[in-house]
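EI: anyone free to look at a 157-residue chain?
SC: sure, send it
EI:
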Amino acid sequence: MTASHPDGHPRITAEEFLNAEPDDFSSTFGDVEIVDGLVVRLMAQSEAHSRVVRRLAAALEDARDPAGPCRRIGSDTAVRFADADDHRADHRLNMRYPDIFVRDSEPYDVNTVRDHIALVVEVAWKSTVDSDTTEKHKLYARTGIPGYSIVHFDKSW
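SC: here you go
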């Protein structure tokens, strides 16, 4: 980790992220996304959120046409998006973990998987709906991902 944000949030470079062992990174930071190098801690998913994600991913798996094309379903897996245009190395990295994504069958590579994604699904709840409908929507569109679905499952808000 290179520096700390005034709010106490650490920053990380792409090299630091890519050179870290996955277990080392998660044990240091917990569940996070990285936005312009800033490590943003995520709240733990609720049991209901986790159940919806699992069921949607399973439904997408079951809906795949066995005759092709080959599609793979990912869930809560790192996807590196284009680096921010900043001369400071610890202000560039953009790493997200979409709830679900559908991609072609190219071998998974965190640095290039974004170019193979056909659909992203985010399961929104009260604390994530703003990010899901603004920041992530723009990010996925800018990346050229053709499909983006937001699932609102909590009827209390």
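EI: Residues 100 and 149 are 10 Å apart (CA to CA).
SC: 👍
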